[in-house]
Amino acid sequence: MEPGSVLLVEDDADIREALTDVLRMERWAVEPAANGKLALDRLRSGPKPDLMLLDLMMPVMDGFELLEQLRGESGPSTVVLSASREVDRVREHPLVRATLGKPVEIGVLLDLLERLRVAEQTPSGENRRSGSAPDGDNGVE
Description:
Layout (H helix, E strand, L loop, with lengths): L3 E6 L3 H13 L2 E6 L2 H10 L5 E5 L7 H8 L6 E6 L13 E6 L4 H15 L5 H5 L11
Parallel strand pairs: 1-2, 1-3, 3-4, 4-5
């Protein structure tokens, strides 16, 4: 079974490319976006990805603004990847399931994505509606 699809929103080309490669090796379908505006356009124009990995500090439209644009809309479960001290501002957003500090530990990220994928497939969907990560911690760092 394929793991699912991920929208990877990251402005740093090296990080974006490295994460894309790793996720694809793990059989995730990855669509990279270099900023929040490109991600928003993608989210509003096509089928929703299963998950979104989101950097906060980006040019054009940052992750904070992207999340605000998506407030009140259905969207993908989101994992925030950030070194920003302002990450607390997004932890309570309805789409944010977890936060990971940068630099990201690949094993931790892959484990989290798998847990989120499994949680999204539960019949009750309780984890998705409650806004918490599968382990109940919305602030994995």
